[in-house]
Amino acid sequence: MRKSHTITISGAGSTRVPALVGTFVEFRDRFPVSKFIFYDIDNERTSKTEAYIRLALKTYYSDAEVIFTTDEDLAYSKTDFVFCQMRVGKSEMRSYDEKIPLKYGLVGQETCGAGGFSYGMRSLTAMIDMVKKVRSYSAETWILNYTNPAAIVAYGLQKVFPEDKRILNLCDQPYSLMRSFAKILKVDQKELSARYFGLNHFGWFTALTNRQGKDVFVELKEYLINHEFKPYNAEQRAKSWLDTYVRVNKYMQYIDEYIPTTYIQYYFFQEEIVAESNPNYTRVDESFDTREKEVWDLCKRAEGKTDFKDLVLLNDSVFGNLMVEVAESIAYDLNEEFIVLVQNNGLIDNFEEDAIVEVAGTIGKDGPKGYPYGPIKTFYKGLMENQYAYERLTVEACLEGSYVKALQALSLNRAVNGLENAKAVLDDFIEVSHDYWKLK
Ligand code: G6P
Ligand code: MN
């Protein structure tokens, strides 16, 4: 039997957490947990899912201790892994991140374009405090971070905690795309091995092989050029997500050497995306009417129940599986393959050393290790240099409280067009961000 762990779920009120719990149940032999600490500063939110989570764990994980708390010290003082998916400012602020840019005819997305800047400023500030708190107790605890925008959070944390090798920033998008590729190719996801480079939410698959080492990339690209790209779980996806997959097809009508992540489109098809957006009903509203409603309705049905009979155990989300598989790979030094976020340090040999790049690699007891990629071509290098400069200036604006750097950052972002737009969105963001961040 493998050694078991104490884990803390930080941002436990997230609607992704019930399915994460389902993954812990499924992985109970692979990654045994003796104590679950569910921590959130918003007790009201957590109370919507608490009964369901408690009942699921009582039913399927009866030997584990379960704690729900709003006490930061209790959450972080004695824990082996922090699984973090905090959303600073919750949906209310996500709504501003998406809607303010649209007012100026700019992409309204939470991690790309101007919205990602605003979200990044909030997340980084809170994540720095969190890491300090965790480290005030232990240097050993692993911090697995899913808080977005991962690119900005990862770069900022590296700047503030350069020696800390136990912070891992994670994104399920490449993982989710691999699952969709596997479905198209009719193979198991674990049989596929990718070559990939980029920044987070800004990357490309450049090769794919199956377990026998056979190249399946050409076959996949041909499929994507000739068929509608659908995520592996298309039936469960809301319309706006399906649209993003179709725009991968569209990108590939123009440039088909690599397969982009769905997030690249926000930098290439801005006009079309803005024209299709409803400035009064963005992704945050859609997710409220779909995932949030579904999860909360299900969880409500657990209230007052003593058994799980008429309930379903949510499970197999890409987010949950990725987080737990990564923890397992660290805890038992499995060196499983993932697409990882790591400091470049020459992996992409014609790119900035200190950038956080997204490449294929492995994860083991010392954290993630990227596979050397080699040089990238001018087109991608140009795009990434620009995006990296934007990310770096955003981090510097946040750490230094610099208005000028914030303006420079936004004006560099390809989804923000020109200084006037940059200033307009920045000033609007400042107005709604109150105590989350301040610039001078
Ligand atoms: C993908 C990304 C995540 C992001 C999520 C947003 O999974 O990799 O970084 O948080 O999508 O999903 P939502 O359903 O909240 O729009
Ligand atoms: Mn992501």
Itemize the secondary structure elements and their pairings.
Blueprint: E1 5-10, H1 17-26, E2 33-39, H2 43-60, E3 65-69, H3 72-76, E4 81-84, H4 90-103, H5 113-137, E5 142-145, H6 150-160, E6 167-169, H7 173-185, E7 193-199, E8 202-209, H8 217-226, H9 239-254, E9 259-260, H10 270-276, H11 283-300, H12 318-331, E10 336-343, E11 356-364, E12 367-370, H13 378-400, H14 403-412, H15 418-433
Parallel strand pairs: 1-2, 1-4, 2-3, 4-5, 5-6
Antiparallel strand pairs: 7-8, 8-9, 10-11, 11-12
Helix pairs in contact: 1-2, 1-12, 2-11, 4-5, 4-15, 5-6, 5-13, 6-13, 8-9, 13-14, 14-15
The structure holds 6-O-phosphono-alpha-D-glucopyranose and manganese (II) ion.
Strand content: 15-25%
Euclidean distance between termini CA atoms: 55 Å
> What Rg do the Cα atoms give?
21 Å
Bound molecules: 6-O-phosphono-alpha-D-glucopyranose, manganese (II) ion
Question: Largest sheet, order of strands side by side?
Answer: 3-2-1-4-5-6
Sequence stretches where pLDDT stays below 50 over 5 or more residues: none
Helix and strand composition category: alpha/beta
Q: Give the integer mean of the pLDDT values.
A: 97
The level of helicity is 40-55%
**What order do the helices and strands follow?**
EHEHEHEHHEHEHEEHHEHHHEEEHHH
Counted beta strands: 12
Please outline the major beta sheet. 6 strands, parallel
Question: What's the number of helices?
Answer: 15
**Shape field:** globular
